[in-house]
Amino acid sequence: MAKKQTKTAFQVAFGKHLEKLRTERDLSYRQLAQRCDVDFSNISKIEKGEINIQLSSVLQLAKGLNVNPKQLFEFEFDLDKE
Amino acid sequence: MAKKQTKTAFQVAFGKHLEKLRTERDLSYRQLAQRCDVDFSNISKIEKGEINIQLSSVLQLAKGLNVNPKQLFEFEFDLDKE
């Protein structure tokens, strides 16, 4: 897991989408964490856009949600935002 | 940029797709690097699946290629592979 860093608009957008995917599946932070190799306290931080996660965590979250990794990026994001 | 790590099937798949997007645009490593905040020597390593990059680098590569970040993940990947 990457260390905590400054929030960025992209991290925040990713986090909001992750939260949507998780809650649509009626999973708590803890339940999602139990399905993948990401600490449950970090899931909350990722959803708030506080962590600049690595590809390995993207894959873990995809496994935990049982979605293709690309679905984690299926949100609108304006490239000019940052 | 995250430190160099062990190759994983997901990193390799991501890297191959990145190479496809870059070469489709007739961009060299150096040309892509000039368009984004990623060192040109790292672009080669990312394409080989040698770096577990962070969300910030995903965004930079998307900017350099002028694609939506989600397009960087539009490749097939079997979750059971790792």
TrEMBL record, chains A, B:
Signal peptide: none annotated. InterPro entries: Cro/C1-type_HTH, Lambda_DNA-bd_dom_sf, TransReg_Diox_bact_type. Pfam families: HTH_3 (PF01381). Keywords: DNA-binding. Residues 18-72 form the HTH cro/C1-type domain. The keyword DNA-binding applies. It comes from the Bacteria. PROSITE patterns: HTH_CROC1. This is HTH cro/C1-type domain-containing protein. It comes from Flavobacterium cheonhonense.
